[in-house]
Amino acid sequence: MKALEVKDVMAGYVDEQMILQGVNFEVNMGEFIGIVGPNGSGKTTLLRALCGLLPVKHGFIKMNEENILNLEHNELAKKVALVPQLMEPVSGFTVREMVMLGRTPYMRRFSFEGDEDREVVKWALEEVKIEDLAEIPVNNLSGGEFQRVAIARALAQEPKILLLDEPISHLDIRYQVKILRLLRKLRKQRTIIATFHDLNMAARFCKRMILVHKGMLVAMGTPEEVLTAANIWKTYRVKAEVQKNIRNKNSRLVLLP
Amino acid sequence: MNKNQILIILCSVLLLLAVISVFLGPVMMSPGDLMESPIFLQIRLPRVLLSVLVGVLLAISGVMLQAILRNPLADPYILGVSAGAGVGASIALGTGMTLTLFGLSSTPILAFMGALLAVFVVYNLSKVAGRTSTETLILAGVAVSSFAAAILALIIITTGKLQSIYFWLLGSLSSASWSDVITVTPYMIFGLVIAYFYSKELNALLLGEDMAQTLGVDVEKLRILIITTATLVTAAAVSVSGLVGFVGLIIPHFVRMILGANHRYLVPFPPWPAQSFWW
Questions:
Q1: Which of A153, B15, B155, B177 has the fewest other C-beta atoms within 10 Å?
Q2: Structural domain boundaries of chain B?
Q3: A252 Cα to chain B: minimum distance (Å)
Q4: Which of B195, B189, B187 shows the shortest CA–CA distance to B65?
Q5: Cβ–Cβ of B207/A90 closer than 8 Å?
Q6: Which of B109, B220, B224, B94 lies closest to B167, judged by CA?
Q7: Residue A102 C-alpha, separation from nearest chain B C-alpha, in angstroms
Q8: CATH number of B3-278
């Protein structure tokens, strides 16, 4: 059974202009997939379609054989969570309150958060290792710390699929590695799909990658299969070369002058 | 000092001010004469109660609109309530009509209807391709308010009732009566219940409209509901007190500073203690 099956998906912001022009792919449970592609290629649009923010005009998206396009907002929110590119800290909220917002689809009216909600929030804070920041106002956090709060908030939704839009773009290299290690650990028991601009970073942490260009899938497979000089030229229009590191057999992409 | 202590202090200040203001006035009273005095029962008591009610109505409306428009400068009048009510009231005052309905005279009734009409126009103006956005709502609110201000000026000039109309626009509780108190109480209960009922959605909206939607909130539906509620609540306040300014803008912020931004606390508590503000 596929954790996620995307078939012939077409979607766009205006009716006449489809940004995603027939996207097909399948993802297994426990995978950490990296989506790469130039600016404006449809990476973010794809994530928005997957979490129901953008109506899908054609095709279907199935999770465990269930078409999620017909689900109620609230039911979808229990299955798919999104960490957006830039999340604003809610001023006046502590880290715990911010993470508690992820429990919205589970909370009942007139009732304050229940024991189960508190348990899940505690678990989410521990998963991303920020339990000691719980009572700190979110405004006081650094970018790297706040990114972990954003991930914890999404985890509090208990999603089967976790989507992240450029989770490491605005972080220093120390936090980039920290966040990617965290995601690699979190992929167990769920599926993670994230977009990246740093191709080498994505290649090091994702077992499988998707290369998107003009709303279509150009390549899908292992980083070695996807990040070839030909593919990079076709999509980014940049001359690059794949160099093998003799010591650890990692390959990396190097720009040619 | 923790939040509960601050709340208790503010509630006590409210109570103290209420008690003091019952005694103050052109006719000073001792506690002994209170119960027999018609000044106390028919004038001062309803006035004090109405001031609390109006403050609660405006504060609750401010909280809801600041959340739904995601704008800290939003106040209860931002979507045209004040302008519409002003035109309605000035028609009543300018023509000197003397119709009464359910114990209310024509001024509050027309003010109420004018407020609802203005927001109805604003909401429909702001729709682009069947959806509203915070930007179009605020812009439509400004546009309709300017238009209504022009109509208001025309009414003032043609009827010559500048003084009475201007006095109403400034906002006043001087003519508060028991029937006013009874009329606005259901609106206050309605507003508090709705705002509390939807507090989890209002909280989710703090993350932005897209994020609220990924948390299962139907943003467009919520917007219609909250705007309708806030409009009814504000219109009720305005119809009995005129255009009392500032309260609906500042109290939500004041309470946020003390209690934080969580609507579960922001909605039920704030209005009460913060009420002491506008004496």
A1: B15
A2: 3-278
A3: 35
A4: B195
A5: yes
A6: B94
A7: 7
A8: 1.10.3470.10
SS3 string of A151-215? HHHHHCCCCCEEEECCCCCCCCHHHHHHHHHHHHHHCCCCEEEEECCCHHHHHHHCCEEEEEECC
Using a CB-CB distance cutoff of 8 angstroms, which residues of chain A are in contact with residue B200?
A: 104, 107, 109
Residue in chain A lying closest to B262 (CA): A93
> Can you give the residue ranges of every domain in chain A?
1-79+159-220, 88-158
Chain B within 8 Å of A135 (Cβ-Cβ)? Answer: no
B200 touches chain A (CB under 8 A): yes
B165 within 8 A of B156, measured Cβ to Cβ: yes
Distances (CA, A) of B44 to A235, B24, B175, B242: 77, 9, 10, 18
Residue B235: in which H helix or E strand, if any?
helix B219-241
Chain A contact set for B211 (CB, 8 A): 82, 84, 87
Residues A36, A219: Cα–Cα separation, whole Å: 10
The pLDDT mean for chain B works out to 86
Q: Across the interface, do B201 and A104 touch by the CB < 8 Å criterion?
A: yes
Residue written as token pair 């009216």: A109
Domain A1-79+159-220 homologous superfamily, CATH: P-loop containing nucleotide triphosphate hydrolases (3.40.50.300)
What count of residues does chain B have? 279
pLDDT in tens, B162-187: 888 888 888 878 778 888 899 999 99
Mind listing the pLDDT tens digit of every residue in chain A (257 residues)? Answer: 688 999 999 998 887 788 999 999 999 999 999 999 999 999 999 999 999 999 899 999 999 888 988 899 999 999 999 999 988 888 889 999 999 999 999 998 766 788 999 999 999 999 999 999 999 999 999 998 999 999 999 999 999 999 999 999 989 999 999 999 999 999 988 999 999 999 999 999 999 999 999 999 999 999 999 999 999 999 999 999 888 877 776 778 888 88
